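Figure 3 (text version): structure tokens given as input.
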């Protein structure tokens, strides 16, 4: 049996035994599951309608382009074009029958193919880096000013924020200060940032302050190599921030996305980076105050 998503409260269901369509009420949990899958697939470079076509075909099995277009309320020409594009990506097959039908590879295999395509693209970009830099450096450039500028940068998305955090850590020469409540600490711990932080702690002074929650206590237990960490009173409203050598800061915060009633509101990660001296000093003073506010267990 295969399900097809529609805007109405009813959804078409195809029964393979009776070879007929029927209408049933949408399953709210099914909606949430599909939305989670769609969001993940979009990160692999698939467009909204490509995801819609693939998921319906993956659930329904073999279908003609016209049947698929009708089931997902998409123009037949657009559906056919998308099927061909998905076929080029290796996640859809054409069946040699008359009339022509299409079928999709299983989701796990499709993800493997999409991941491999991303890896190949990254390798190609890395190979082009040397020639690109050489070409750029061979061009005449105006003389750059040596005057230090106070800058700021807005970042959006967990991946971009983590990349910037790693850059900040790499540039640190003397001291790296980090305040992260439980949720932010979880993000940092399950990325490669915690491993890099451990390696950096052998060369620079690393200080971390977190909250008194059980979740933070767990992560502190996993980060026993930190020789100087404190807990403070739990404050869920404080953003995560990190300071490098008292020269630059990165402030990360969660922005709740307003979803509908059927979908739980999602939190988007965003951040601000700056080397603005006055701002750096204020956060350095705040970190010192938090660092001095030790819990009874410390």
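Below: residues designed for each position.
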């Amino acid at each position: 049996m295969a399900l097809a998503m529609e805007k109405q409260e009813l959804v078409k269901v195809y029964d393979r035994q009776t070879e007929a369509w029927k209408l049933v009420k949408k399953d709210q949990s099914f909606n949430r599951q599909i939305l989670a899958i769609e969001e993940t697939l979009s990160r692999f470079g698939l467009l909204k309608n490509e995801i819609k076509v693939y998921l319906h075909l993956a659930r329904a099995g073999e279908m003609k382009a016209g049947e698929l277009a009708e089931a997902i309320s998409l123009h037949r020409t657009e559906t056919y074009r998308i099927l061909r594009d998905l076929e080029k990506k290796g996640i859809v097959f054409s069946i040699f029958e008359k009339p022509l039908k299409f079928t999709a590879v299983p989701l796990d295999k499709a993800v493997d193919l999409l991941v491999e395509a991303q890896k190949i693209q990254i390798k190609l970009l890395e190979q082009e880096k040397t020639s690109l830099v050489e070409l750029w450096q061979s061009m005449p450039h105006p003389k750059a000013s040596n005057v230090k500028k106070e800058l700021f940068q807005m970042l959006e998305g967990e991946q971009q924020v983590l990349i910037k955090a790693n850059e900040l850590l790499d540039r640190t020469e003397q001291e790296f200060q980090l305040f992260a409540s439980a949720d932010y600490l979880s993000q940092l711990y399950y990325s490669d940032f915690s491993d890099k932080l451990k390696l950096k702690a052998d060369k620079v002074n690393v200080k971390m302050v977190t909250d008194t929650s059980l979740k933070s206590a767990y992560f502190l237990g996993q980060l026993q190599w930190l020789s100087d960490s404190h807990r403070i009173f739990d404050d869920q409203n404080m953003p995560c921030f990190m300071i490098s050598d008292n020269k630059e800061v990165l402030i990360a915060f969660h922005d709740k996305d307003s979803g509908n009633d059927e979908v739980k509101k999602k939190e988007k990660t965003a951040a601000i980076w700056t080397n603005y001296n006055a701002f750096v000093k204020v956060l350095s003073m705040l970190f010192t105050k938090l660092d001095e506010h030790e819990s009874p267990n410390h």
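Residues 1-8 have pLDDT under 50 and may be disordered.
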